[in-house]
């Protein structure tokens, strides 16, 4: 099997798996989704996934952990959030902090 055929096979298998997962979600009974524990977990899953993504992007460089300007940018963004700044200000504060530290 060529590399192209193997790649397309992997894409088709992933698409079939995604479709099966979506179908499984439609088959879950409504009473199971009405459980407060399920609702609470469903509300927290996106937050946990986003937090994990942020940590990986900020603290990892290849296969090693690093503390650099990205961490300072994250801290500046967190401080802006604590001060209840608008989202655009939070993003600009984080980006400006990281850029200034990298330029120095």
Architecture overview:
The chain has 104 residues and is mainly alpha-helical. It has a domain at 1-34. The chain has 5 helices and 2 strands. The chain has helices at residues 3-27, 30-33, 36-59, 69-82, 87-103, and strands at residues 60-61, 64-65. A two-stranded antiparallel sheet has the order 1-2. A hairpin with a 2-residue loop joins strand 1 (60-61) and strand 2 (64-65). Helix 4 (69-82) packs antiparallel against helix 5. The protein is flat, with a radius of gyration of 21 Å. The protein starts with a helix and ends with a helix.
Largest sheet: 2 strands, antiparallel
Distance between the termini: 51 Å
Report the mean per-residue pLDDT as an integer: 93
- Low-confidence residue ranges: none
Total strand count, please?
2
With strands numbered from the N-terminus, the spatial order across the biggest sheet is: 1-2
Please give a quick description of this structure:
This protein is mainly alpha-helical and 104 residues long.
What does the secondary structure layout of this molecule look like, with pairings?
Elements: H1 3-27, H2 30-33, H3 36-59, E1 60-61, E2 64-65, H4 69-82, H5 87-103
Antiparallel strand pairs: 1-2
Helix pairs in contact: 4-5
Task: Offer a few descriptive terms.
104 residues; mainly alpha
């Amino acid at each position: 099997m060529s590399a192209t055929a193997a790649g397309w096979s992997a894409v088709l298998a992933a698409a079939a798996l995604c479709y099966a997962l979506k179908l499984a979600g439609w088959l879950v009974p409504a009473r199971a989704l009405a459980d407060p524990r399920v609702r609470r977990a469903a509300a927290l899953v996106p937050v946990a996934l986003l937090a994990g993504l942020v940590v990986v992007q900020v603290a990892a460089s290849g296969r090693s952990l690093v503390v650099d300007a990205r961490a300072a940018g994250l801290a500046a963004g967190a401080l802006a959030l604590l001060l209840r700044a608008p989202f655009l200000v939070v993003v600009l504060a984080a980006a400006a902090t990281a850029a200034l530290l990298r330029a120095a």
